Amino acid sequence: MQEILLYVFICASFGSVSIIILNRNVFYAALALLVCLLSLAGIYALLSAEFLAVTQLLIYAGGVMVLIIFGIMLTNRISGKPLYVTSQNWIPGILISLSLCATIIYSYTPGSTKSVLSDAKETHLQQIGTELMSAYVAPFELGGILLLVCLVGAALTASSFKKNTHG
């Protein structure tokens, strides 16, 4: 069952990345990015990396995507038409992608990942949470305050555009 779910998440991430690359509408590309980030969180959860899965959901899929979609919607409201992008750099993009793919395939050796994983200290989500709320509470709270300030600033910016347009 886990193997089937893994393949479902891999296909979902591959399909959403294809939509991101091939779609010209920025809003639909952002929604496809959200699907990709959620499927990566599912892959992390299946690989018993709970902390990475929760971080992926909270930070990327939650916070960053809200800001990206909010920015796109604000941009669409100002201009009055959807934002479309075009690219003339297909050849360099394909060459860079193929070279990165070749580098990853070349550097992968099945024995090296097992030795790294077996030597690593085993950490659990509860231990990370305890450390985060005791020793590292100040950076955690500052990060939360920073995200809150960004959201309030975005809301104020949106409301000031509304006032300047009509008044």
What order do the helices and strands come in, and which of them pair?
Layout (H helix, E strand, L loop, with lengths): L1 H21 L3 H21 L3 H30 L10 H18 L2 H10 L5 H10 L2 H30 L1
Verbal overview:
The protein is mainly alpha-helical. It has 2 domains: 105 residues, NADH-ubiquinone/plastoquinone oxidoreductase chain 6, subunit NuoJ (Four Helix Bundle (Hemerythrin (Met), subunit A), Up-down Bundle); 44 residues. It is 84% helix and 0% strand. The chain contains 7 helices and no strands. Helix 1 packs antiparallel against helix 2, helix 2 packs antiparallel against helix 3 and helix 3 runs parallel beside helix 7. The longest helix is centred in the middle third of the chain and has 30 residues. The chain is globular, with a radius of gyration of 20 Å. 7% of the residues are buried.
